[in-house]
Amino acid sequence: MILFEIKDGVGKICLNRPEKFHSVVKNLAFELQSKLDECALNNDVRAVLITATGKAFCAGQDLAEATAPNAPNIGEIIHKHYNPIVYKIRNLQKPVIAAVNGVAAGAGASLALCCDIVVAKESASFIQAFSMIGLVPDSGATYFLPRSVGTQKAAALMMTAEPIKSKEAAEMGMIFKCYSDDEFEKKSWKLACKLAKMPTKGLAFTKKLLNSTFSNNLEQQLNLEKKYQIAAAETEDFSEGVNAFLEKRKPNFKGK
C-alpha cells in the first residue's frame, strides 16, 4: 500500500491504494509509520516527500474498515493509526514535503497540513470533510489549520466542509505553492531535491524552533533561538557555508 524509494537524498513515500483513493486502513497507516521511521534513521535520506499515485492524495479514513463489526473503536484508531503519523512527521529531523496530487479529504488533508511544506496540483483540493458525517476534525487539523489561515477561515472550512482548490489554499496561506498540473511532479521533486542538498541539521533546528513558536513567549523563543544557533554554528555545514561564501562558490553541504 506504500511505494518507497530513496533517490538524490530524498525518501519518496507514495500512497498506493488508488482504487480507494488512498483511504486509510490499518495496514496503510502502519506502513506509513514504518517508512517515516526508516527515513528518520537512514542518513542517506535528507528530505522526505509524501505523495500518492493516481488522481487522489488521500480520502481520509476508510469508513468500511472503521465500521466493520469487529473494528476497534474510533479512539483506538486515532491513537494507533493517525496520531503516531503526525508525531513522527513533526519530530522527524528532516524536512517533510507533502506533494498533494489530488483531493485531500478529512484525515488526508490533516496528513498534508502537518508536513513542513505543502505543495499541490492546480486541480487538487482540500476538504475538511468530518462534519459531513457528524465527526470532528482530527489528526492535528484543529492545531495546524487555524495556525495557517486563522480561526475564522478554519472554523468555516471545518463546519461547512467546503472544498478549497489549491490555488485558493495557497492564497490564504494554507499551503506553500500551487503548481500547474503539467509541472507539478517536476517542481515538487525539484523542491524536495533542493531541501535534500541543504544543511540538514540547520533545517532540523529550524523545525524544532517552529514546533515551539506557538507555545513559547518571546523570551523563551529568543533563548531557544540562541541555543540552536550555537548548535548550528558547530556543524560542518556551517563551516562549509561560510567558506563557500568567502570563496564565492556554491556550498556543498553534507548534512553534518
The backbone outline, from C-alpha atoms, is: globular
Helical content band: 40-55%
Strand content: 15-25%
Number of helices: 11
From the structure above, extract its key features.
Lyase 2-enoyl-coa Hydratase, Chain  A, domain 2, 2 domains, 11 helices, alpha/beta, 256 residues, 2-enoyl-CoA Hydratase, Chain A, domain 1, 48% helix
Walk me through the structure:
With 256 residues, this protein is of the alpha/beta class. It contains eleven helices and ten strands. The protein has a six-stranded mixed β-sheet, sandwiched between helices. Helix 1 packs parallel to helix 3 (74-91), helix 5 packs across helix 6 (151-160) and helix 9 (200-212) packs antiparallel against helix 10. It is globular. The protein starts with a strand and ends in a 10-residue tail after the last helix.
List the helices and strands and how they pair.
Layout lengths: L1 E6 L2 E6 L10 H16 L5 E6 L3 E3 L4 H4 L7 H18 L4 E5 L2 E3 L1 H7 L3 E5 L3 E3 L13 H9 L1 H10 L3 E2 H6 L5 E3 L4 H13 L3 H13 L5 H16 L2 H11 L10
Parallel strand pairs: 2-3, 3-5, 4-6, 5-7, 6-8, 7-10
Antiparallel strand pairs: 1-2, 8-9
Helix pairs in contact: 1-3, 5-6, 9-10
